[in-house]
UniProtKB/TrEMBL annotation:
Residues in Glycosyl transferase family domain copies: 187-316
Domain Glycosyltransferase subfamily 4-like N-terminal: 17-171
PANTHER family: BLL6006 PROTEIN, GLYCOSYLTRANSFERASE WBBK-RELATED
Keywords: Glycosyltransferase, Transferase
GO molecular function: glycosyltransferase activity
Protein name per its UniProtKB record: Glycosyltransferase family 1 protein
Taxonomy of the source species: Bacteria, Bacillati, Actinomycetota, Actinomycetes, Micrococcales
Pfam families: Glyco_transf_4, Glycos_transf_1
Amino acid sequence: MRLVVDCRYVRIDHHDGISRFTAGIVAELAERHPLTMLISDHRQLDKLPALPWEIVSGPTSVREPWVARQVRKLRPDVVFSPMQTMGSWGRDYGLVLTLHDLIYYENRTPPRDLPAFVRVLWRLYHLMWWPQRMLLNRADAVVTVSETSAGLIRKHRLTKRPLTVVQNAADEIGTPRLPRARPEGGRLVYMGSFMSYKGVETLVRAVSQLPDHELHLMSRVSDEQRQRLTRMAPEARLVFHDGATDEEYARVLSGATALVTASKAEGFGIPLVEAMRLGTPVVVSDIPIFREIGGEAATYFAVDDADAAARAIASLDAPGEWERRSEASVDVARRFTWGASAERLLDVLVEVGGTNGRAAHSRRRR
């Protein structure tokens, strides 16, 4: 089976969720089956494993609807894309697309790093359901990263194609000495963007009620956002890392009291898995996806409720509570691995790849 994986969504500066999903899954897929990566910028190779690759036009190019004409030259049996927007006009191969979440139907502000014309199309696209259905039904199969997202896809009847959950996971960012001892101080870590649905304002207001705690905001932040959050709660102790390296992030997270997140919606939540794998408890908003990931290990608070968030963080101060949550977190995190996700995805790709794929898959199973 000739397998091609669309890696054009891998960022050249730092991973976001889709970029990390791509890099994680392609490395494990390659351990199980030969593949070729599609890139659109040579700099993407720095964030990808050393595998065969081909370069084609970018996913935000006006040529995207016809990118299949370029891909056909590779004569793949099946192509996997970590997004649902890969062009398919003129394809003669199997296609598996990914829909991570439905966040932008409720929160229509597009990422700021997209070209202006793409941002306009983004807003228009998320005003109605039929464009999503049209995109997904072009594929032979669809995957998503969580049961929560799968439930929403089914609820809104977004595809007639087979739907499979291929869970997100997290990279190894450290090897903690377990069991963990509660760290001194009250360091809280937030890893994520500053888009409105992320609820960072709720975290800032919560920390303003906890004078013994400080909130470390790890992602890149604009001067405007920094000033706005600082003015919002001058008494809150905020530490802006403005884009931490993986090493810095691991160091700060491994010594933290908790990872905190106040999102109103998510498709997954890689930072939760990263924290739990290190034995760092997570205190998060009470939304379905965080229940799916955090289970009984996480501590929850109501969405948009800064008072409840402060109480949830403070609850870790109860005797033995931090240690109990830490141990439970490590156990829960073991459920999420790129290897397990790659195995499940390969089953889908083999089925779509047809006779050649099933024969190769049968040999691999022996």
